[in-house]
Amino acid sequence: MKKDTNHKENKKQRPKRHSKLIFGMLFLLLVGILSACAYFEKASEPEMSEQEFIQPPPGTVQLYHATEDGIEPDSELYQLKQPDNLTATIEELVECMQLDEHISIERFSIDEEKNVSLYITRDGEVSSESWLLNQAAIVKNIEELEINKVIIVLIDENGNEISTATYSDASFYYY
Given Cys at both, which of 55, 66, 146, 154 links 162, Cβ 3.0 to 4.6 Å? Predict the structure, then answer.
């Protein structure tokens, strides 16, 4: 009879062993899942490059130009020669902007509320899409100077006004 008792006692001990084994496997599985989640979460975070922490020197602006599909930043930042003088700064930006060869900024003015009016000529060879993209690039360039509004006045070759439009930072949302 002792054999039967031992056999019954062994059966009672097996479930304990199985439950410990199952508990251990579940614990390892849980640790593995948490480790994998932590790894993939860290891998999905954008890596910070050293360039993101470098502040550009004062008086530096990012210039933009029109492409066939939209507005793109120039490859390098532009260092202003007279960043404290708004008139000189706008004149400098007007000179270095990359516009369509058929679009030209003839002159500009600044009022007391820091609204900038740009007087622009264009010949008939400029498509409406190219005109729109160049206007968006002009406004984006000028807005970096913390002005209020940009007013684009389209003039003919004699200086007569054809149209006037006022733009702010939200005017060209999609570009």
Answer: 154
